[in-house]
Amino acid sequence: MSQSFYVTTPIYYVNDVPHIGHAYTTIAADVLARFYRLRGRRVFFLTGLDEHGQKVQQAAAKANIDPQTHCDRLMPAFKNLWEKLNISQDAFIRTTDKSHQAIVQRCLQALYDKDLIYQAEYTGWYCTFDERFWTEKDVENGQCPDCRRPVEQVSERNYFFRMSQYRQALIDHIKAHPAFIRPESRRNEVLGFLQKPLEDLSISRPKSRLSWGVELPFDRDCVTYVWFDALVNYLSALEYLAPQPEGPHFWPASLHLVGKDILTTHAVYWSTMLMGMERPLPESIFAHGWWTVEGEKMSKSRGNVVDPNAMVEQFGVDAFRYFLLREVPFGQDGDFSHAAFESRYNAELANDLGNLVSRSLTMLGNFANARVPAMDPKSQTDLDRELAQAASNLFEALDTHLRHLEFNRALETIWGLVQLANQYIDKTAPWTLAKDSAQESRLQTVLFHLAEVLRFLTLAVAPFMPHTAEAMRTRLGLTVTFHQPLLTTFPTWGDHRYTGETTKGTSLFPKNLPKPSTTQTTEPSAAFTTTSEKSVKEQKAQSNPSDGGATSSTAELIGIDEFMKVQLKVAKILQAERVPKSDKLLKLQVDVGTEHRQIVAGIGKKYAPEELLGRTIVVVANLKPAKLMGIESQGMVLAAGDKDVVSLLFLPDDALPGTKVK
Ligand code: MSP
To answer: At a CB cut-off of 8 Å and minimum separation 6, what does 207 contact?
Structure first.
């Protein structure tokens, strides 16, 4: 393992304020940066802004200001958010920095001098409205695939980077370095992309069309294509934002974190650019998945953009960081739902961790004078040894999970120990031991073990939940600080160092949270700007009644009489159509034997309306009517699937509508 760790996030376009997608990558990078600092590695963590290009120019034009003013105005929205989210970046780059621009020009000149950049005529289909070219295969019926306006054939003199010549070298590199592109499915995707001939890359735009960019050093009438400018940030920052003189030695980067949509630009454009510049390729590029919100694509026009600021205000920064990394395996798409957030908050943060900390500290206060007592080896039991063993295994597992970017599994492992510690309290029952003076030494041993497990947990959660870890540290009276490389070697059970008094403090994760703002707005300012929250929950239940919006960890057992209250019936689908403006909802007319009912179900991603006609399904017949996107739904359909619907419950066609399902 290399001693240095250089991790980057994409640099974000300043065409709008940051949202959950930006927060996601940046938090993930932060966790790694914090973890490897604790592990004693020399870390450089870079994030920043992509300030050039069409999108930014357009956003500035819309606001009627010049692009630089626009960038300067929007920049604090990102910087302030990173502060609020406890992001510990070592540098924040802006592509309008003079030093960055000079380095981009130097790279361009070097490639031009080596004849790796040439000028040529480019002909393509141009959409004036979107101000972009489309290839022959993109254009449908002479229309722009994006805005559906007519496109015209335009020829333009542009500069091209000889990307095509690196195709085989790149394939060879990917094959020889299994960790270069992760996860594996994305690696295969890039290899698939490289099966086709690779074209040269147009790296310039005439100023007549786009003026907001880095001027080409060899042609003042052109600016650099925004991606060529942006990708160079990973190198340029090392020259003027990293500590010198070691800055440039951070190259090659250990890890570029990117969203799946910008994998090709990183894996192909950036890699071949580096080959042209004769620089080593990054060790790894990891593409994570995308978030939907309450099952819908997140977009401004839908008004469901999740504002991280509002989430932090409502739940606290650590709950937000925890949820994002716990809910979905990094690399896969995931859904951000309020029900799932609340459920994890209540079960895993307030109940599991919050309770453990509060019970343990209360007992240390009540039964040990707020001091961590010494343990008496003679009074040790298997329960203590089991706890100590589990804690001692924790960091090895964490290290492995984080090497593979399995944030969710890392947190799962930590929470395994949290749960074990809670069980330890239940089984050892210190409050009973406290009633019997003959058990004094056993009581002190139990309290010692509790303090130790809290110490281990404090260190383990530190990269994920810095505020929580700090609160646990001070309450436990630990003398160490997180600026020290505390995990260079993994902690040893019993090797505690405490200053003195432990303190109980207030609840780490208070239960009575303020209600979220759910008003529909086009500005991404409310935590959840969806259709009414109630309808969304109901919609979730519609598509998947099996989870009812709660995770299994909180699900309670129900009696047969409660179950019998639910009337399940056979129904036949008579009509089906899509609900306008929703890619998820279908409006069904069903025959339930005694009557016809209208049911709105979240199954539109899985089924086209026409394939459902005449099918026999199971419905909940005695559900109170609810409105989904303003449409009344009189019942719900049964379907299998955790988040996404995998299948409706179909019955043979001869099952009679109205028949009970038991
Ligand atoms: N400026 C380029 C990156 C240049 S890097 C040299 C860019 N910027 S962006 O602001 O449009 O997107 C930044 C990141 O946000 C991308 O990694 C993208 O995948 C991510 N996300 C945007 N929407 C997202 C979700 N809904 N969910 C998760 N991430 C998403 O692209």
So the answer is: 221, 222, 223
CB of residue 424 inside a 6 A radius of ligand 1: no
**636: phi > 0 → left, psi -120 to 50 → alpha, else beta; which?**
beta
Strands across the sheet with 152-161, in order? 132-134, 117-127, 152-161, 201-202
Residue 411: strand, helix, or coil? helix
Distance from the CA of 641 to the center of ligand 1, in angstroms?
28
For the chain, give the mean pLDDT: 90
Q: Quick: pLDDT tens for 33-59.
A: 999 999 999 999 999 999 999 889 988
pLDDT > 50? residue 264: yes
DSSP 265-332: IIIIIIHHHHHHTT-PPPS-EEEE--EEETTEE--TTTT----HHHHHHHH-HHHHHHHHHHHS-TTS
Phi/psi of residue 384, nearest 5 degrees: -65, -45
Q: Is the CB of 259 under 6 A from ligand 1?
A: yes
Walk me through the domains of the chain, giving residue ranges and CATH numbers: 4-162+200-251 (3.40.50.620), 338-476 (1.10.730.10), 518-541+559-651 (2.40.50.140)
* Residue type present at position 364: L
Nearest alpha carbon to residue 30 among 350, 308, 342, 419 = 308
Mean pLDDT on 203-225: 95
Question: Does any ligand 1 atom lie closer than 6 A to the CB of residue 282?
Answer: no
CA dist list (Å): 322 to 251, 319, 377, 411, 481: 30, 5, 36, 8, 21
96 CA distance to ligand 1 centroid (A)? 19
Cis peptide before 245 (omega within 30 of 0): yes
DSSP for 189-238 reads HHHHHTTSPPPPEE-EEETTT--SSPEETTEEEEEE-HHHHHHTHHHHHH
CA distances from 355 to 216, 360, 468, 579 (A): 60, 8, 13, 44
| DSSP bridge partners of 93 | 48
Q: Which H or E run includes 157?
A: strand 152-161
- In the predicted structure, residue 515 carries a pLDDT above the cut 80: no
